[in-house]
Amino acid sequence: MTENEDEFETAPASLQDLIDNDLDGLLDVPEKPRKATATDRLQRAFLEIVEFRRTHERLPSATTRDIAERKLGARLDGILADEAKIQELTPLDEFEMLEVPEAPSSLEDLLNDDDLDDLLGDESGILDVSDLPVLRRPESPDSVAQRVKAQDFDLFEPLFKAKHAELSDGTFQLMPFTGMDLIREGVFFVLNGVMCFVADVGEDVDLVVGGKPKQKQRLRVVFENGTESAMYKQSLMTRLYEAQGQVLARTGHDAAEILDADIESGHIYVLSSLSDDPVISGMKDLHKIGFSTTSVEQRLKNAEKSPTYLMAPVKVLADYRLYNVRASWLEHLLHRVFAEVRLDLTQIDQKGRDYDPSEWFAVPLETINTAVAMIMSGEITDHVYDRTLQRLVGAQA
Fold it and tell me: Where are the alpha helices (DSSP H) in 146-187?
């Protein structure tokens, strides 16, 4: 071997020698990235919630105005409603956010449990099974019968009619239910094919279950079939998830913006007088149709001292919360429809001045409710009030 030949390494005798001498891994084939699975995505999503809990030392809220936190809160609600997800994520749950409540240690704890509370502490009676899970099937007559009949359903029926009209004209659309943050007062849902309305969200109720404090909110949920239920907020969420329920959202907006997209205009309210004046108390179907930008209760303070309210206490018969419409315009339109039966009476106020109340009408409550629904759906333009028939009739009739 010459001196120059010593400067070069001996060439490999074979391909195998070349592979065996690849000390730097130049011939290694890079591994193909593994495609993320549904489990991977679920775990990553949950770890974001864990990181929020670690950073803020509390659970994310599903009702806050902070969009990022609200999404995490809604995500946690969805996980808590799915037993399979809970089992999958429990190994990652370092803060015990998914912990199943312990078995009741006493009779008192048992009676305070969410499910039993609906049976034993609900004024609707032992037949209310609103907190029990439902099967994914069309609602049967038996399940409807388990709810309580809504005694004042005539106040809500126009709202359902208006919402159906808005679905038909495209103003509103149905979107999948995505979490607890959507369950708020004034929101419409579709559960097992039946539209329902969250008429009221009660105050937080502190319960102790399994030795641990729990905070729940009781709802008043009215269904378009004339029934209602007093289930807890968590229970409605679970049933909507199980039945793949939907929420009514304004077209062009996300479901998360269900109320952000709507601007409350005010209240149209209907009152009856509790006056002991025989002239007033003797008038059949005498009702006041008014408008307020504040709560009706606030507006009616000291009614007995105001000639607007006939110098007497009043009873609220209906309270329509209006969104994205000029409530004062709606009130004016109602007054015009019923102008023929406006009360003709002069009152004297506390200072001895004459006052002619202009918002009282001799018209049945159900006709007022119908008029509100027809105004919202646009049908009112083709109808007039017939004082003999005491109902709205076609303008050409």
Answer: 157-168
Buried b (16+ CB within 10 A) or exposed e, 129-147: bbbeebeeeeeeeebeeeb
Identify the CA nearest to 334 among candidates 346, 322, 347. 322
As given in the structure block, the two tokens for residue 304 are 């007995």
Q: Looking at residue 134, what is its pLDDT? A: 45
Does the predicted model carry a pTM greater than 0.70? no
* CA distances for 304 relative to 56, 277, 313, 343, 352, angstroms: 51, 12, 5, 18, 15
As beta bridge partners, residue 288 has: 271, 360
Q: What is the pLDDT of residue 29?
A: 56
Q: Number of helices (H) and strands (E), helices first, in the chain?
A: 13, 15
Q: Give CA–CA dist 210/99, Å, rounded.
A: 12
Strand partners, 213: 208
Concatenate the DSSP letters of all residues of 284-304 into one string: TTEEEEEEESS-HHHHTTTGG
Could you identify the residue written with the tokens 């670690």?
54
Length of the chain: 397
Element (H or E) spanning 330, and its range? helix 327-337
For the stretch 66-113, pLDDT in tens is: 888 888 988 888 888 888 888 889 888 888 888 755 545 554 454 455
What's 136's DSSP letter? S
Instruction: Give the dihedral sign, CA 9/10/16/20.
Output: negative
